[in-house]
Amino acid sequence: MAGVKIGVVGAGSVAWSSKLIHDLLHTPQLYGSKVYLMDINEERLRLLKGFAEKYKSEVGADYEFVATKSRREAVREADIVINTAMYGGHKYYEEMRRISERHGYYRGVNSTEWNMVSDYHTIWGYYQWKLAMDIALEAEEYAPDAWLIQMANPVFELTTLIAREARVRVIGLCHGHMGYREIARAIGVNPDEVEFEAIGFNHVIWLTKFKQRGEDLYPLVDKWVEEEAEKYWQEWRKTQVNPFDIQMSPAAVDMYRRYGLFPVGDTVRGGTWMYHWNLETKKHWYGPTGGPDSEIGWQIYLAHGEAWLEEIEEAVRSGSPLAPMFPKGLSGETVVPLINSIIHDEPATYQVNVPNLGAIDGLPDNVAVEIPAAVDGKGVKRPQGLKLPGRILRLVLWPRMLRAEMAIEGFLEGGFQVLLDWLMLDPRTKSEKQAEQAWQEILSMPGNEEMKKHYS
Amino acid sequence: MAGVKIGVVGAGSVAWSSKLIHDLLHTPQLYGSKVYLMDINEERLRLLKGFAEKYKSEVGADYEFVATKSRREAVREADIVINTAMYGGHKYYEEMRRISERHGYYRGVNSTEWNMVSDYHTIWGYYQWKLAMDIALEAEEYAPDAWLIQMANPVFELTTLIAREARVRVIGLCHGHMGYREIARAIGVNPDEVEFEAIGFNHVIWLTKFKQRGEDLYPLVDKWVEEEAEKYWQEWRKTQVNPFDIQMSPAAVDMYRRYGLFPVGDTVRGGTWMYHWNLETKKHWYGPTGGPDSEIGWQIYLAHGEAWLEEIEEAVRSGSPLAPMFPKGLSGETVVPLINSIIHDEPATYQVNVPNLGAIDGLPDNVAVEIPAAVDGKGVKRPQGLKLPGRILRLVLWPRMLRAEMAIEGFLEGGFQVLLDWLMLDPRTKSEKQAEQAWQEILSMPGNEEMKKHYS
């Protein structure tokens, strides 16, 4: 029996939290623990608490689930704090996007080269960042021995920021690296037999190792690109329904050709503006939905989140067994196994986001990289001196890092200049007046009063 | 008597070399030295040799001047190698600029945020960079104990590149920091009494210290901005004839307001595209000439270089005394005093460009920074931990550094992608087709055959 305290801040995301609860219930090593589910949405909390209790009895697991609206109660003396909170809800960001587009910024001023992900809120994520920092500082004060697991996006920026500005042990987690399994399946290899390494920044990772029984699989990837890609795309263009089905898209293959390594997971959603000028361009590279970050794909994604909510509600209400909602075994999310490795000092390797400190050559120490690393009770043991091609460092990671540094500067120091200069590096900008007016209108939006003050 | 060997590669730039010779002749500590003036332009060499011998007799100085077309002869066993060579002549670059402009890239694809200087050739400087690296590698082989003084632009990129790629002790030199004297004069302070510090990258330096007898002079700058700038600009708009007369321009003051420190020297020529969209914008910020890097200002600059050439020719031919061509004392260029400090182990402080190695906080170690540093026979003693505001680091130096890293990547690794991605970060780009076509036509220009191969 572990008897640890896990505080989950922002547990109201039902799709995600139900998977977390499923994994906890199927991890007997952590039985006896207390799990605080914290959110500001009371209704969601009630639903989740009901779900957790019902599923717990069904499995016969031993946990104490506490639903609370008090963040401090969830954090205080926790061994693990998970931040999965998103400030404001999607409507808030969609409104900023709408204003941006009126000023010529398709998909919003937040979208930039190598970050086209529609809810990876960087330069306009003021409140989201403030929330994440508040949680980190609360952990620093009320749970000084805790590990903070940062799952809320933007994982790259927030892990970097928190590691610099708070005295708390932070690990950023994401599941995008699982995209390597789709690459394996495409080339006819069992994903479970694959040894892989994908490194870079969160959402910008590149396949540096891809092997089966010691044999390099890249030649099979090349063969697929050469002989099968066209046929695959023909079919895919007729049948793509999931906008996230882009791991083997023309965009991914084009990036592979241009930069020399295969892009993994959310990386494919990035790239320069050449993949993203408009819906037509997006369809060319990402299929008929235009990928997850087009105006079409994003609506599908948002609708999908609501469907999960209804399904769980229905399952709890009807009293039917919950297990069939989930695949057998753990969900594949690494957060629960990682917690177990930390709590029970059981070393295992995870894809984590942590300050570089020499892990990847050619990047500063104080920027969060995404790498596979051994984690145990003592923490994260980084590999050292991992290599990426100069092309990827200079043309992808450095530009991406520049955006992170600008957003961090803006968040920490405020002032209008950073917002203006952000858009002066953007090929959508035609004049500084356009940039100024877009930001002025965004800042004047109801709800952005504090943000406006910060950036004035 | 020093008896050292100084090899000057690219001595054919008469305006510059005549000042170098003037300073050498007025530095008796270096008498007895051999000075190799190397260039591929025989006519210029003859002119310079004639000038040097005549001026030497006039002053009664003791030097041996050797004119040579052999780079190796100039470099071999030199104690000091000065690289001041510019590949190709201005016409070559003007042609690339002309092609760029046909594709929508005003002032050329080489111009970017914080490098709008018309002959600071970065991404399109393939041959210039190759020449600089050849000289550095020749010094490595034939003059392993020499100091290489890199004066040919782009000093920022080339000093960085050479320090990384050649085993030679390199110092980059520029005179742009002298702009602090104009600021002093504007606020009514004797420049000779001013203590100043201006740091950053070459051509991107910011006034971090500005004092007179221990008193901070920034309040006087603020007063000037508040009370006198408008009046000054009114007059200046009517009388500006020198396009370089921009140290106190609206651009400089605007940068000061936006970034928090006063920009010094060539820094004022930089900025984001907001100062540079077109001639009209440039005139607004840089006066009626549009500054040195407008189509007007640049023509004035090019014409001025030719005038110097004619003046020296005429002076040598006529037999009239040469001294009156120069102001009393040394020219103000630091290269000769710096050589003397190195050769005679006489410590003094110079504005140099050297790999950071901790000199400025928040910048990588392997990037060349411009700082004041003590130089003596053992080399450069950097100050440590100099501070710049986050705003300048994140919004100015990081974007500028990103461009340097992209250009270095392109030079070392080649391939078309870097050229394309260079323009995908440019607000003048409307489509990747535009970017591709601009580069294709530049690469297909006669004379660019090797460069085309490199970038294919």
Describe how the helices and strands are arranged.
The structure is a homodimer of 456-residue chains.
Chain A: E1 5-9, H1 14-25, E2 33-38, H2 42-59, E3 63-68, H3 71-75, E4 80-83, H4 89-102, H5 126-142, E5 147-150, H6 155-165, E6 169-172, H7 179-186, E7 194-201, E8 204-212, E9 215-216, H8 218-227, H9 229-239, H10 250-259, E10 263-264, H11 279-286, H12 295-318, H13 335-343, E11 348-355, E12 368-376, E13 379-381, H14 390-413, H15 417-424, H16 432-443, H17 449-454
Parallel strand pairs in A: 1-2, 1-4, 2-3, 4-5, 5-6
Antiparallel strand pairs in A: 7-8, 8-9, 8-10, 11-12, 12-13
Helix pairs in contact in A: 1-2, 2-12, 4-16, 5-6, 15-16
Word description of this protein:
The structure is a homodimer of 456-residue chains. Helices cover 45% and strands 15% of the residues of chain A. Chain A is α/β, with parallel strands linked by helices. In chain A, helix 5 (126-142) crosses helix 6 (155-165). The longest helix of chain A has 24 residues, at 295-318. At the A-B interface, helix 14 and helix 15 of A face helix 14 and helix 15 of B.
Quick recap:
Two copies of one chain form a homodimer. With 456 residues, chain A is α/β, with parallel strands linked by helices.
Helix proportion range of chain A: 40-55%
> What is the count of DSSP helices of chain A, taking H or I runs of 4+ residues?
17
Quick one: biggest sheet of chain A?
Answer: 6 strands, parallel
Tell me the quaternary state: homodimer
Low-confidence stretches of chain A: none
Roughly what is the average pLDDT of chain A, rounded to an integer?
Answer: 96
Q: Write out the strand line-up for the largest beta sheet of chain A, numbering strands in chain order.
A: 3-2-1-4-5-6
Report the sheet-strand fraction of chain A: 15-25%
- State the separation between the terminal residues of chain A, measured CA to CA: 53 Å
Biggest interface, CB < 8 A: A-B, 36 and 36 residues
Order of helices and strands of chain A: EHEHEHEHHEHEHEEEHHHEHHHEEEHHHH
- Judged by helices, strands and strand pairing, the structural class of chain A is alpha/beta
The total of beta strands of chain A comes to 13
Structural shape of chain A: globular
Radius of gyration of chain A: 22 Å
